[in-house]
């Protein structure tokens, strides 16, 4: 079970149509696919979610050769400084890069032992993982017309109910003027009936504009607002305005408990440094009555990992996020997962339960070589435009 080598490949995963969010619009995402090979010939798969981390992974990999794949904490101590702050090291980046390697260690262990990740984590709490159906204004793509009006977005939501029995809808705000977004939410509510509706502003509003928006959206039974504002303190200030709950990507459990906001933290498996740390964090959230969900945007590798973790941990109860329906490519055999009736079945193969498609990996890597990294603020029309808050 010892590590023989660790390699990494940067890939671009395109969307069928560029979607708009509070920072601009984006047509593709750059990820780093990791392959860990053991001395026994087993290949474990992992992923870094935050762009091209190839160099970081390769440097870490050299330091981990010969280590038993089960010794996760030993591996962490070898490559991630044990400190909260460093003037010379990019600690968040190192934690994220190691999180991808650690994912591959779990996958290799599951494959070696012939059991899924959920088995290694203590058993299965659920067979299917609930997911939201995303919507947004989208620009035209190579084979997709996008959605440019509130009515077109509402029609998309209605189609997702008709075609896939979508159950919970979540979509982007703080992308156009408030009147248009209120019209969009009104049309969507009419299209989806009493299904749950969540809205995500990605921190794009100031506190005054968030108050104005929430007041205007009150008639439409919004269940959750994700990052209506950037800080926990601002979310706490909005608490009296709406019965809706708040969620955030920023991770500060102590502050969430002290302020009573946000109600849930939404992140991936890299941000806290891997699966083991995320499992411990979810347990802490449960202890202090703060919800936890996963967000999407990874290839099928990391997506399979969060499905496995969600299956194993009972506290991951609410629907997590997904962009699966929007992917135009993937690096796993079978392509992107396909949600049905608001959920995806947990992969039942060993480890993460997915198989790397070598031709797809090569194709997605070539796309990265041709296009460069996404998101990139210098690429107009992909992830650019104004960064001014509304």
TrEMBL record:
This is glucarate dehydratase. Pfam families: MR_MLE_C, MR_MLE_N. The keyword Isomerase applies. It catalyses: D-glucarate = 5-dehydro-4-deoxy-D-glucarate + H2O. It is an enzyme of class 4 (lyase). SMART domains: MR_MLE (SM00922). Residues 150-245 form the Mandelate racemase/muconate lactonizing enzyme C-terminal domain. Its EC number is 4.2.1.40. Keywords: Isomerase. SUPFAM superfamilies: Enolase C-terminal domain-like, Enolase N-terminal domain-like. GO terms for molecular function: glucarate dehydratase activity; isomerase activity. Pathway: Carbohydrate acid metabolism; D-glucarate degradation; 2,5-dioxopentanoate from D-glucarate: step 1/2. Gene3D superfamilies: Enolase-like C-terminal domain, Enolase-like, N-terminal domain. PANTHER family: D-GALACTONATE DEHYDRATASE-RELATED, GLUCARATE DEHYDRATASE. It comes from Roseovarius faecimaris. InterPro entries: DgoD-like, Enolase-like_C_sf, Enolase-like_N, Enolase_C-like, Mandelate_racemase_C, Mandelate_racemase_N_dom. The keyword Transcription regulation does not apply. It comes from the Bacteria.
């Amino acid at each position: 079970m010892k590590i023989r080598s660790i390699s990494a490949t940067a890939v671009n995963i395109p969307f069928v149509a560029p979607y708009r969010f509070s920072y601009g619009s984006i047509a593709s995402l750059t990820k780093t696919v990791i392959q860990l090979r053991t001395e026994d010939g087993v290949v474990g798969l992992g992923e870094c979610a935050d762009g091209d981390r190839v160099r970081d992974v390769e440097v870490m990999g050299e330091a981990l050769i010969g280590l038993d794949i089960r010794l996760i904490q030993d591996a962490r101590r070898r490559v991630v400084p044990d400190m909260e702050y460093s003037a010379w090291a990019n600690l968040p980046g190192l934690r994220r890069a190691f999180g991808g390697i650690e994912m591959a260690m779990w996958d290799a262990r599951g494959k070696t032992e012939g059991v899924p990740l959920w088995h290694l984590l203590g058993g299965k709490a659920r067979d299917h993982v609930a997911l939201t159906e995303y919507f947004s204004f989208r620009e035209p793509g190579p084979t997709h017309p996008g959605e440019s009006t509130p009515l077109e977005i509402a029609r998309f939501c209605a189609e997702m109910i008709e075609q896939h029995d979508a159950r919970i809808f979540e979509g982007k705000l703080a992308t156009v003027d408030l009147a248009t977004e209120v019209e969009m939410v009104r049309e969507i509510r009419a299209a989806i009936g009493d299904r749950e509706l969540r809205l995500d502003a990605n921190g794009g509003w100031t506190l005054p504009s968030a108050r104005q928006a929430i007041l205007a959206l009150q008639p439409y039974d919004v269940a959750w607002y994700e990052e209506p504002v950037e800080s926990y303190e601002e979310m706490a200030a909005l608490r009296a305005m709406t019965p809706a709950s708040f969620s955030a990507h920023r991770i500060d459990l102590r502050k969430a408990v002290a302020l009573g906001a946000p109600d849930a933290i939404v992140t991936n498996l890299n941000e806290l440094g891997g699966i083991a740390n995320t499992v411990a964090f979810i347990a802490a959230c449960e202890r202090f009555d703060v919800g936890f969900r996963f967000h999407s945007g990874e290839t099928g590798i990391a997506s399979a990992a969060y499905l496995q973790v969600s299956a194993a941990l009972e506290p991951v109860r609410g629907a997590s996020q997904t962009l699966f329906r929007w992917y135009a490519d993937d690096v796993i055999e079978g392509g992107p997962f396909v949600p049905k009736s608001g959920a995806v079945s947990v992969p039942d193969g060993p480890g993460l339960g997915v198989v790397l498609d070598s031709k797809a990996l090569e194709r997605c890597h070539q796309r990265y070589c041709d296009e460069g990294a996404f998101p990139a603020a210098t690429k107009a029309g992909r992830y650019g435009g104004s960064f001014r808050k509304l």
